[in-house]
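Ticket #4471: complex job returned nothing on first submit. Input attached below:
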Amino acid sequence: MSESAGQRGCTVGIAGFGTVGQAVARILSTDTHPGLRLTHVCNRNIARKKADWVAPDVVWTESFDDLVDSPVDVVVELIGGLSPAREWIERALMAGKSVVTANKQVIAHAGAQLMTQAGQQGRHLLFEAAVAGGIPIVRALREGVCGDRLYRIQGVLNGTCNYILTEMEHEQVSFAEALADAQRLGYAEADPTADVDGFDAQAKLAILIAVGLGRIVRVEDIPLRSISSIAAVDFLYAKRLGCVIRQVARAELMPDTGGIRASVRPALVPETSALGRVGGSQNIVVVDGTFGGETAFSGFGAGGEPTAVAVVSDLLGIARGTPVTREAALPMGGEPQPVTREFKAPHYLRFMIVDRPGVIAALGDVFARHGINVDAVLQEPGWSKAELPFVMTLEACSSTAMTAALRAIDEFDFHVRPPLWLPMLANGATARERRA
Amino acid sequence: MSESAGQRGCTVGIAGFGTVGQAVARILSTDTHPGLRLTHVCNRNIARKKADWVAPDVVWTESFDDLVDSPVDVVVELIGGLSPAREWIERALMAGKSVVTANKQVIAHAGAQLMTQAGQQGRHLLFEAAVAGGIPIVRALREGVCGDRLYRIQGVLNGTCNYILTEMEHEQVSFAEALADAQRLGYAEADPTADVDGFDAQAKLAILIAVGLGRIVRVEDIPLRSISSIAAVDFLYAKRLGCVIRQVARAELMPDTGGIRASVRPALVPETSALGRVGGSQNIVVVDGTFGGETAFSGFGAGGEPTAVAVVSDLLGIARGTPVTREAALPMGGEPQPVTREFKAPHYLRFMIVDRPGVIAALGDVFARHGINVDAVLQEPGWSKAELPFVMTLEACSSTAMTAALRAIDEFDFHVRPPLWLPMLANGATARERRA
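Support reply: We reran it on our side without changes. The output follows.
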C-alpha cells in the first residue's frame, strides 16, 4: 500500500466488470467500507459497460496497462480463466500491487508460484472468492482451525451440480430435464461440461488441499467422474438406503504414507449427513481434524454478491494492514505430490437390464471371483422387464477390485445401459481412530 | 512477543488445567505446531494435576504471580467465571503478555474494556474459544464475512440444550428425563441452570453482537426464556407444523433505528432450516448479510478438544505476527445500547386443560379482543380429557399483544398447566427486502 494509504484509504482497481466485478463495485459504492476506495475499472468495451451508479471520479479503461501504471494499491482480478489472467496477476505483483482474485483456475494451477512471487514483492495475493464463493473457507482453514491437524476435507463445491441433483431427487426428473431447467434459470452454462463433469470442483479441491492439508497436487491428477449418467431412479434406491446423491469433492491424508487421496465424483451420502443436507445451489465444506472433529461451513458458493463479499473481505484484510506472512496461505516449492486414486468403500451398483433368469446368479459369480461380498439386492416393483433397473450394494471393497469386476460384467449382453457405480460414503475413520 | 521469540517460538503459559487446559497442553505436546512452546502451567493443587505427558521442563505453579513474572509471551486464561479471571487477564496484559481466553463471561461483560487495555499495551486479547468452541466464528465474522454488512445473527449456541431438545424430540421423553440423561452422559452439569435457562447462550450472543453487528449491549439486557417448560407433546405438534424446537439465540439490527433486537428463547424453526437441522450437542451460527445472504458455520460447540483447537488457532495467530489492529475485534467505548425485547412473529401456543365446552370460544374471544388472528387449532387424538394438550397457532402479532392476551387467558380456570408460547421463526426479511 502506498504511503498515503492511511489518509485516502486503500485504493482498488477492478479488472473484469462482469457479474462479480459489478457486485464488488456496488459494495464499494455504498458507505459500508470507508477504508476502501474504488478508483479504476478495466474491461473490454467500456462504452457498453460504464455504469452510472459508479462514482464519477472512477477511471474507466480498456487497457490493463492503465491499471498497472496507476497508483492503485490493489488489483482485483475477475476476468477468469488461465490466460491472460495469470500474466495480469504477475504484472500487477511486479508493479508492486497486491492482488485479490476469484480465479480458481489460476490459483489451482499456478497458486504456489504466484504466491512465491507475491512474497518476494512483499505483496498480498488473496483468493478467498476462488473457492465456495461466499463461504470464508480459505480463511477458516488458514486461521480458524489452524490449531488442529486436518486430515480430511469434503465438500459440495459446485452449486450447479447440486441444483441438478436435488432437482432430480425432488422432482423425479431425468438428468437432461434437470440440466435444461438449471440452464433456463441461469444456474448452468450453455456448455455445462466444467460443472457436471467435475472440472470446476476439481480446481477448487486442489486449492483446498493446498490450504487445508498443506500439499500441492496437479489439478489434473485429481480423478473425476461426471454426474451425467445418474438417473432419476437412482434417487429412489438411494432413499431406500437412507442416502442422497451428491457430487462430492473429497481429499484425505493417508495415515500411513502421508500421501493424498482425492477425487471428485458422485457418491451416495447419508441423508442426515452434513453433505446430504445441503440443498439447491448451496455449497458446503466439511473438515475433519485430529483434535476438533468435524466442522462444517455452508452458504452460497457462487453468485455475484456472495463472491463479491469474499473479495471485499480480502480487500479489508489488506486495508487493515495484515502483514504478508512468511508462512503463506499455500505451501510453496517442491514437486507436486502424486494423488492416490485407489480407495476402499461400500458400493452402490445400479443395473439397467433386459430381465431374464440367471442375471443375479451371473453377477454374483463375478463378484465372488473378485472377492467382493454382495450386501443386498434391491428391486422396486413396477418397471418394464425390457428396461429393468435394479441395485446391488456391495460391502467395502477396493476400487481396483470393483473396476476389474465391472470389466467382466460389461461382457454380459443383458445390459440396456452401462451399469452405474457409486461409492457409498460414510464418515470413515474418526479422529480418535486415526490417533490410536 | 519478546525479541528472541523468533528462535525459540512463541512461549505459552496456561492458567487453569481443567478439560480445555489439558487439551491445549496435549496439542502443544505433539509436534503439530513447532512455533508454539508450552513453558508454564498454573493450577491449584498441582501435585494432583501434574501430568507425566507434559514435557519435563514445563514449570508447574499454583500462583498466577509466577505466570505474570515469567517470560511467557502469551497467557492462556482457562479458569472460567468473572473473578478472578478478569483481574488475571488485566494483570497479564499490564505485564506485557498477550492473552488468549475461552472465557465467555469475561468477554461478554468486560470485553470492550479489556480490549482497550490490550490495545494500549500493544498486546493481543483473543477469544475465539469463548463462543461456539470449535467453530471459528469470531474470525469468520471479523475477517471472513467482514466485506458484508451483517444484519442478523442466529444460533444454536448451547450444546446441552440442543442435546436435551433433540433427545425429547427423538425419544418422546419429558424434559426431566432428557435432562437426567444428559447429566448421566456428562453433557449437562449437576446444576443445569446456566444452560437450560439460557445464561450461557446469553453471554455468547452478547459477544456475537459485538463482533458481528458492531454493537455493545449489556449481557443481562438480553431477554431469556428457559427451555424447561417444553413438553414431549410439543414436538409432536411442532412436527405437524413442519418444525422442530430449538433454543435460539438471535440478534438483529433494526432497519429503521439501527437498534438491536435480541433474545435467547426456545422457538419453533422449520425442520429444513439450518437451525432445525443441527442435532445433538452440535452448535451452529447462521449469519445474514445484506450482500452475501445466509452463511452457516456448524461444528462442536463445546468439549475440551474442539475448544482447545480454537485456543491454539488464536496462539498461532499471535505466533505468526498478526499485528494488534487498531480496529479491534470488539467495538470499544461508548455506552451499551438498549436491547429491544419487543418482536413480531407468528406464535405457537400450547394449552394443557381440563376439557369442557366453550374453551376454544373463550380463548378465541380473548385473541379477538387483542387484535390477534388465530391461524389454526390442532388437537391430536388419544389424550385424557382431564389433561388435554392442544395447540393454537396465531398469525404474526406483537409480543406485547401476546403478553397482554396471555395475562387475560391466565385468569381462566381450565388450565392444568400454564400455557406455553413459542415464536415460530421463519427467515424473516431477506437481504433484498432490507435493501429495498
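Residues 257 and 340 of chain B are 11 Å apart (CA to CA). Closing as resolved unless it happens again.
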